[in-house]
Specification:
- By secondary structure, the protein is mainly beta.
- The chain contains two helices and 17 strands.
- Strand 3 and strand 4 form a beta hairpin.
- The chain starts with a strand and ends in a 12-residue tail after the last strand.
Length: 183
């Protein structure tokens, strides 16, 4: 399971020469909210553009580093290409409210999870109700519905099916297997 907040800040290393090419700064998504690529810290050479790697050119996203095939995988990307991202795009996934189709707000997105074995579709959301609520009751995990068409990932909110509030689980800081169907 890939936790997006964990991936941000990891070094990006090209496999062919072992060269460090940057750190993950953000992730961007396509129009279906599937992971499209990662944005790297820019550096001085890319003042007007962003450094990015398409997700299909990422070989491994490990605990301590992201590996790509070679430095040619890093390309200049205009900011306009990154419409949807976690932190910095025009439409940001972080802090979007998650609301049921009956109008009940379940929280705001603080992190998203991807299944590293089944592709790059979002499999769950970590939700927050704010700092004080997190201290008092903790954050919540909401698994993404199996039918991705039943979720509307909009510009200003994520609309989930009615009854999704029954699927909420508490998140512990040390819970690494959240959302897995393992005992």
């Amino acid at each position: 399971m890939i936790r997006l907040q964990h991936m941000i800040g990891l070094p990006v290393i090209e496999m062919s020469a072992g060269k460090h090419v940057g750190h993950v700064k953000d992730a961007w998504f396509d129009e279906h909210w599937q992971l499209a690529g990662i944005v790297l810290d820019a550096g001085r050479r890319f003042l007007s553009a962003m450094k990015a790697v398409l997700w299909n050119e990422v070989l491994i996203c490990g605990e301590d580093a992201v590996l790509i095939m070679n430095e040619a995988s890093v390309r200049k990307t205009e900011a306009a290409e990154v419409q949807r991202s976690f932190h910095s795009g025009i439409i940001r996934l972080k802090d979007l409210p998650v609301v049921t189709s009956y109008g009940e707000q379940l929280g705001r997105v603080s992190d998203v999870y991807f299944d590293d074995l089944q592709g790059t579709q979002i499999v769950g959301y970590e939700l927050t109700d704010g700092f004080i609520a997190d201290l008092m009751g903790g954050r919540k995990w909401l698994p993404a519905p199996l039918d991705s068409d039943s979720v509307l990932l909009g510009e200003n909110a994520i609309i989930v099916p009615a009854g999704s509030e029954l699927l909420l689980e508490p998140v512990a800081a040390s819970d690494l297997n959240i959302g897995r169907n393992e005992p």
